[in-house]
């Protein structure tokens, strides 16, 4: 569980997965004393993993365009902040590029 949550943690902001959505997986970490401890997935944790899987299938990260300014957005999701680096260009087909 620790490794899975850690790996998702690296990419969740790129996928648009919020800390609130991750909470069922965070809850599985409570009471773990060893990386070999086993936990049963709750239905909420399974739903979160399905959301991550869906996001992985449909999202991608863009490369930075040096000719366009970079913006930082700080979002507060249920009191937990999250930062997103992005670029916006009205001339792009997808105007918002998350970096």
Automatic annotation (TrEMBL):
InterPro entries: DNA/RNA_pol_sf, Rev_trsase/Diguanyl_cyclase, RVT_thumb. Residues 2-50 form the Reverse transcriptase thumb domain. Keywords: Endonuclease, Hydrolase, Nuclease, Nucleotidyltransferase, RNA-directed DNA polymerase, Transferase. It comes from the Eukaryota. Pfam families: RVT_thumb. GO terms for molecular function: endonuclease activity; hydrolase activity; RNA stem-loop binding; RNA-directed DNA polymerase activity. This is POK18 protein. It comes from Oreotrochilus melanogaster. The lineage of its organism: Eukaryota, Metazoa, Chordata, Craniata, Vertebrata.
């Amino acid at each position: 569980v620790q490794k899975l949550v850690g790996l998702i943690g690296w990419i969740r902001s790129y996928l648009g997965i919020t800390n609130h959505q991750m909470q069922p997986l965070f809850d599985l970490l409570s009471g773990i004393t060893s990386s070999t401890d086993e936990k049963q997935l709750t239905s909420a944790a399974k739903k979160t993993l399905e959301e991550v899987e869906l996001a992985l299938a449909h999202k991608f990260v863009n490369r930075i365009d040096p000719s366009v300014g970079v913006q930082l957005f700080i979002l507060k999701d249920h009191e937990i902040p999250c930062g997103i680096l992005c670029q916006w260009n009205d001339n792009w087909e997808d105007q918002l590029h998350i970096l």
